[in-house]
Amino acid sequence: MKVLIAGGAGYIGSTVASACEDAGITPVVLDNLVTGRREFARGRAFHEGDIADGPLIDRVFAEHPDIDTVVHCAALIVVPESVADPVGYYRANVAKSLDFADHLLRNGCTRMIFSSSASIYAAGADLTVDEDSPLAPQSPYARTKAVCEAMFADIAATRPLRVVSLRYFNPIGADPEMRTGLQLRRPSHALGKMIQAQEEGVPFRVTGTGYPTRDGSGIRDYVHVWDLATAHVAALDAFDTLLPEGGEGPGSTVINLGTGTGTTVRELLDAFDEVTGTPVPAVDAAARPGDAAGAYTRSDRAERLLGWRPRYSLREGIRHSLEWAAVREDVLKDSAQQPA
Predict the structure, then answer these.
(1) How far apart are CA 29 and CA 44, in angstroms?
(2) Largest Cα–Cα distance of the chain, in whole Å?
(3) CA gyration radius, the chain
(4) Inter-CA distances, 289 with 79, 82, 92, 282, Å
(5) Do 198 and 274 form a contact (C-beta atoms < 8 A)?
(6) Which residues contact residue 99 at a Cβ distance below 8 angstroms, ignoring those fewer than 6 apart?
(7) Which residues contact 91 (CB under 8 A, 6 or more apart)?
(8) 3-state DSSP call for residue 285?
(9) Are strands 252-257 and 162-168 parallel, antiparallel or unpaired?
């Protein structure tokens, strides 16, 4: 099997590519490198460019006619940034995804795994959700994911495109072999901010303390990025069972990817302190633009349909994030110095 990974030089896309290779699936990487790293595509078939570039997509399929599935990870993902620049986010995440779908259909590629987000949900009173929960995205970023899901479902209803949308909860960790991890030295999510606070010897800011959670801080379902990656491999293997070609049912489906355990920001900090053995002080701060209370999954659909369940614990995710932070600069520097 050969798979095109759009956004395959990014954090999740590159990890998916490694999981595919480990499973005997050949990845072809497409990335415009706006946020991705060229080093993360090293040793793989790589095409630099945009998913909206029709001639480029045509060339990719001409060079790799045996691609039969696309994993669409290409997107901008920073919530506060989306609040500040909704036009840029809708253009990058929605308009270009529409063009991409058109290019795929023209080239006869009818199988897509779409990187969606659990941020599109309206959480219930207990802050849990399943795939049938109502949607109420709270930021432009989240709305771009909901719009894309609806757009792909509409296309799949009348065209041969079939789409499995995987709704990620909150990725943490790195490739356990330290091949790839978060590209940014200063990521904006809670765990990244904890690592930064520890490195700089400053308090960690708990942004948002009035949420309806057990301690007032936001709640998340932290899932290890390698577990997310192996879920994509499982979805590739099960694709035609989930959405049979020429089937009479809908041409799209959704699956949550989470652990089923909710962890508040304060609980994440406690776990972080336990792993590091060096407590980081915390101060309360206002919520960031676009932030929400959060949610965690109560669904077992991924296990039933994909035979997938998370393998790594919260503390292992924290430990791998710390290990990656310690080697990131050297890994990327060494990669950049190697010949292509």
Answers:
(1) 7
(2) 59
(3) 19
(4) 8, 9, 20, 20
(5) no
(6) 51, 52, 54
(7) none
(8) strand
(9) parallel
Rounded CA-CA distance 131/241 in Å is 19
Sign of CA dihedral 52, 336, 2, 63: positive
Question: Which residues does the chain have with pLDDT short of 50?
Answer: 336-340
Q: At what angle do helices 225-242 and 11-22 cross, to 10 degrees?
A: 70
Phi then psi dihedrals of residue 211, to 5 deg: -80, 155
Is the pTM here over 0.90, yes or no?
A: yes
Q: In angstroms, rounded to a whole number, what is the distance separating the alpha carbons of residues 40 and 161?
A: 29
Active centre residues (catalytic): 141
Q: What is the pLDDT of residues 203-254, one digit of tens each?
A: 999 999 999 999 999 999 999 999 999 999 999 999 999 999 887 778 999 9
CB 269 within 8 A of CB 96: no
Angle at 83 between CA 81 and CA 89, to 5 degrees: 70
Helix (H) or strand (E) holding 225: helix 225-242
Torsion-angle region of 24 (φ positive above 0: left; ψ -120 to 50: alpha; else: beta): left
CA distance 130 to 118: 9
